[in-house]
Amino acid sequence: MQRHLISAADLTRDDAVLILDTAEEMARVADRPIKKLPTLRGRTVVNLFFEDSTRTRISFEAAEKRLSADVINFTAKGSSVSKGESLKDTAQTLEAMGVDAVVIRHGASGAPYRLANSGWIDSAVINAGDGTHQHPTQALLDAFTLRRRLLGREAALGRDLAGRRVTVVGDILHSRVARSNVDLLHTLGAEVVLVAPPTLVPVGVESWPCEVSYDLDSTLAKSDAVMMLRVQRERMNAAFFPTEREYSRRYGLDGERMARMPEHAVVMHPGPMVRGMEITAEVADSPRCTAIEQVTAGVSVRMAVLYLLLGGNEPALSRQPSAERTASTAHAAEEK
Length: 336
Ligand code: NCD
Known about the structure:
Layout: H1 13-30, E1 44-49, H2 55-66, E2 70-75, H3 87-96, E3 101-106, H4 111-117, E4 124-130, H5 136-151, E5 165-169, H6 176-187, E6 191-195, E7 211-213, H7 217-220, E8 225-228, H8 244-251, H9 255-258, E9 266-268, H10 281-284, H11 291-310, H12 323-335
Parallel strand pairs: 1-2, 1-3, 3-4, 5-6, 5-8, 6-7, 8-9
Bound molecules: N-carbamoyl-L-aspartate (NCD).
């Protein structure tokens, strides 16, 4: 694995499967009454959020705390960024305080890459979403959820998603989730179909490893999963479709459309959902919708990523006392 996680496209099939398998180990910790591991004790992780976030920010923080890291939360609102401080100065300020990893979400595509490759800081950089570019941990948690649902929890270990068909529907143009999923699902052997109105399909999509369709109904019966995306109004400076009603009618998922999916197929959504727009409440609340499972998976997957980027070479759940723990126990015994 590389030292940073900037793009889902940087992961090999074996990297991705290792992360997903490690996340399964981490998920076992979440099932315990005490959900904490000492793995990152003494390491500092800063969450640098220049853009709004609910799930991703809380999930990273939970993952860091479950690995016993010291956590610093930084949000652009209320910081000196609103006084005009640059990314470079902000990063160097954090580096001067001695951080081991930076989790960054930024409105500008490429900001995490810049941070990782600029020489400004030495710490590991994890992209938590940059502009319309990438959101690699989202793609990993989606793959984790899919693998579990389609293959089963035990059977999933060591395996990829070869031959599965995933349909991604909605505002592809502005979606870093779509881009990351196309890259990762392709690496894992799945076939991806993007469905959107022509105005929300990015220029150059022909070079992506996926198919494109403008007709949701024709894709449903062949899908193992249908991933619904939010229309990202905050990134739109023009009208991309006539009315919301028209959009929902053609590209929204309702109960009637869901019934045309194969029985085993699931509905996914990265959140935040806009009920009544891309997804009806009936679908969002149905047992076929994995939105909540995806959130739970997010914590395990982010623990796995942090562990693999920062942690040692020991198995994540080693029950052997580490040298450090043995030494401190011996020291405590001497003091008695
Ligand atoms: C997405 C994001 O921020 O890219 N949400 C998320 O991270 N779970 C998608 C969105 O905002 O619609």
